Protein: Pyridoxamine 5'-phosphate oxidase family protein
Organism: Tritonibacter litoralis
Amino acid sequence: MSQSTDQAPLKTNRSRLRRSHERGHYDRAAIDQVLAAMPMCHIAYEIDGAPSILPTLQWREGDYVYWHGSAASRALRAMEGKSVCLSVSCLDGYVLARSAMHHSVNFRSVMLFGEAERVEGDHAATSLERMFDALFPGRWETLRPMTDQEFKATWVMRMPITEGAAKIRSGGPKDDEEDYELPIWAGVVPIEMNLMPPIDDAETRLDVPQPDHLSRIKLG
Amino acid sequence: MSQSTDQAPLKTNRSRLRRSHERGHYDRAAIDQVLAAMPMCHIAYEIDGAPSILPTLQWREGDYVYWHGSAASRALRAMEGKSVCLSVSCLDGYVLARSAMHHSVNFRSVMLFGEAERVEGDHAATSLERMFDALFPGRWETLRPMTDQEFKATWVMRMPITEGAAKIRSGGPKDDEEDYELPIWAGVVPIEMNLMPPIDDAETRLDVPQPDHLSRIKLG
């Protein structure tokens, strides 16, 4: 599939696919938008002399990206104070071209490089609340409060948003000029990630309705 | 969020949430199912002495996972013959518990460890066709054939499916026993990744309809 960064002029025909092929390095606003769109991230770190990956959830506070896990996590302990790479990717569509070579995907992605740092004490507690604000706004204050034991069992980590970039590809295929005359269908199969209606836990008390804050959960 | 591997007995009440918390290590069939459900993967590798990530598409052929990219890709050149970690993750839902601690996510994931190997010659050409069979079945034979130049510009890589595991979590929250009586809503917000109706490229010839093979593209 094409790795080209060619950019074709935009077209304004709304009934068909707009040709736009923006890629490359973006400003901080683009990075923040992608981080906000997709909480799932993959963090590369080294353990036992080889690269490994931690799939987890991320949230942003100012100029840092945060994640958390069990205090017993080998991954978190291995990455503390070490270089890591955090990647967030939204797969937005398949781009089907007239030749195999120019098939591609539409995506929004962020890649960050830096040192993973453990956050402790009050800062860690506040950050867990910020995670809920990011993922499930309005929910934290409805929950049974966290115990000291639970705080102790939880590690909060972060890395600065200093080195890295956002990359975005959107729009239709970019074929070789001579291929446009071929009788081959080309276009995009969009991909969407959607939240579905909440499902009550079997043990939820019958007098407890679905709370309004469920409607504030966003994705994409 | 909970890292527990507790398993609760299944319930059969279909109108509410089934409690199942399967996690951990699965057999080869589970690995193959997750690989088939989600082509997007993240590959951790080392470059310039630090971990990095390549987000790309994977497909399986027998006991290997394959990916490809530009012959000019620094990432592919850096990982050839080296240890890598390939991760595939499907985010299937948010699991909302009665305490912050037991919030979790439902997911299907695979993590593989091994050495990345470059595939060359006829094997590479055949593998690119297999990639289309996996992603866009029926499309390869409708395309303008790849040129020698295009084959030369494309690297195909693979790693064996020998070391690694699938992990799956599904079902509702698993709260502390004493929290079930609290008047707090708990349940799951499912997440689905869906293919949307194909969009014609603005340059598609008017006499070329959307081909039947578009309906054979699957995800999830």
Remarks:
- Chain A touches chain B through 96 residues (CB under 8 Å).
- The two ends of chain A are 24 Å apart (CA to CA).
- Chain A has one domain: 28-216.
- The helical segments of chain A are 28-37, 74-79, 121-135, 148-152.
